[in-house]
Design a protein that fits this description.
Helix content is about 55%, strand content about 0%. The chain has helices at about 10-25, 40-60, 65-70, 80-95, 105-120.
Length: about 140
């Protein structure tokens, strides 16, 4: 059975070290996995989905289709999932080497957005990162 620790204070660090010592005394083999950076927030996750929806809407409004944006073939209108899987995720993977948006830190979400926005602007499309009041759009 795995455990998850967030050490962001002297107290939590000391509690973790105490638990680590106990585990090492009880078990012959322990694997530690360390992550750095604050994980993305639920607000960032919600904003990411709003952003992908807004991008799909803007690309469709500008006359782009998946076929015209990427390669020859069948014309398919953009959707939130197509934007996430074919625009956001490849850029995210190239920058962070992470496959899942759930594994991103807050700074990695920001960096991925900046690079996605730059790529979109090369096609004449700009969608600002959603703020709370933009969620209903």
């Amino acid at each position: 059975m795995g455990q998850f620790w967030v050490c962001n204070s002297t107290h939590t660090r000391e509690m973790f070290l105490r638990q680590a010592k106990e585990l090492m005394e009880e078990r012959p083999y322990v694997v530690w996995e360390i992550d750095f950076g604050k994980p993305r927030t639920s607000k960032q996750n919600n904003a990411l989905h709003v952003f992908c929806r807004l991008v799909s809407k803007e690309l469709n409004n500008k006359g782009f289709s998946v076929e015209s944006f990427f390669k020859d073939g069948v014309e398919i209108p953009f959707s939130t999932e197509i934007v996430k899987e074919h625009i956001w995720r490849p850029i995210q993977k190239a920058i962070t080497d992470k496959d899942s948006t759930a594994d991103l830190t807050t700074l990695e979400v920001q960096s991925t957005y900046e690079n996605v926005n730059r790529a979109l602007s090369n096609k004449g499309v700009h969608v600002p990162w959603p703020q709370l009041e933009s969620k209903k759009t």
